[in-house]
């Protein structure tokens, strides 16, 4: 009886020893590492070259008392291929009731890299000047922040994408403005335009996008401007001694 008990005890010890000292070959497998790299993108490549705001040069024609487009030599021309792009014009001979040639435009020469809103801000001392933006633009309402220049903001109705963005975007209806007959035009009046691009992704509206991208900040990020000064032609003369 004692011998049997001892045998059982030894057997138990051996089982425990095997359990503690055993090495098991588990069945395993391992994948390669997947690495995700995140880099902030951009609206358009090389904006100084591919995103511009210009208008065409005009000069006063005394024979017709109007402003007309001119070529590089200053000669009046109706051939648009000879028009000269400038950052602004000076209108020093305007009179009440005059219609003035003015064609500011945004030009995008390379496709945007992310869906984007195209904005134009119009501002300046423009009392006595009558103009409208063409039908492709709509005024932005619901802004929560101040505009960079305190003007009026418009957005192009159709957001830009890589497939539809390259092209020219005229701003003023009829590419002209008129001088009011009754509202006095301040001496050295000015009318200025700034253009902006901002991503559409993540924003519920154009107003929300502009507030986040440009509101309250006068930054140079994807923004270009055009300025014209307009002076009233005096209809009386005065001599001083």
What does this structure look like?
This protein is an alpha+beta fold. The protein is built from three helices and 15 strands. A six-stranded mixed β-sheet has the order 5-15-14-8-11-10. Strands 4-1-7-12 form a four-stranded antiparallel β-sheet. Strands 6-13-9 form a three-stranded antiparallel β-sheet, with no helix packed on it. The longest helix is centred in the N-terminal third of the chain and has 20 residues. The protein starts with a helix and ends in a 9-residue tail after the last strand. 24% of the residues are buried.
Distance between the termini: 147 Å
Quick one: overall form? elongated
Count of DSSP H/I helices: 3
- Strand arrangement within the widest β-sheet reads 5-15-14-8-11-10
How much beta, percentage-wise?
Answer: 25-35%
Oligomer: single chain
Quick take:
With about 240 residues, the protein is of the alpha+beta class. Helix content is about 15%, strand content about 30%.
Task: Kindly list the characteristics that best describe this protein.
single chain; 4-stranded antiparallel beta sheet; 3 helices; disordered C terminus
């Amino acid at each position: 009886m004692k011998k049997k008990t001892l045998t059982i005890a030894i057997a138990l010890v051996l089982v425990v020893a095997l359990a503690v000292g055993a090495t098991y070959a588990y069945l395993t497998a391992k994948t390669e590492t997947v690495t995700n790299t995140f880099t902030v993108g951009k609206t358009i490549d090389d904006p100084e070259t591919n995103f511009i705001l210009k208008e065409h040069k005009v000069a006063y024609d005394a024979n017709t008392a109007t402003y007309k487009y001119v070529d590089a030599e200053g000669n009046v021309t109706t051939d648009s291929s000879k028009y000269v792009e400038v950052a602004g014009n000076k209108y020093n001979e305007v009179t009440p009731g005059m219609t003035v040639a003015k064609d500011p435009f945004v030009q995008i020469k390379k496709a945007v890299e992310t869906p984007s809103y195209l904005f134009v801000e119009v501002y300046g001392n423009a009392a006595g000047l009558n103009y409208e933006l063409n039908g492709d633009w709509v005024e932005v309402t619901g802004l929560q922040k101040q505009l960079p220049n305190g003007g009026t903001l418009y957005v192009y109705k159709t957001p830009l994408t890589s497939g539809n963005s390259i092209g020219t975007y005229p701003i003023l209806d009829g590419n002209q403005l008129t001088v009011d007959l009754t509202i006095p035009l301040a001496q050295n009046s000015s009318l200025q335009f700034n253009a902006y691009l901002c991503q559409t992704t993540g924003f519920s509206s154009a107003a929300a996008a502009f507030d986040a991208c440009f509101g309250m900040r006068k930054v140079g990020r994807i923004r270009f401007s055009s300025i014209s000064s307009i002076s009233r032609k005096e209809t009386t003369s005065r001599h001083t001694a």
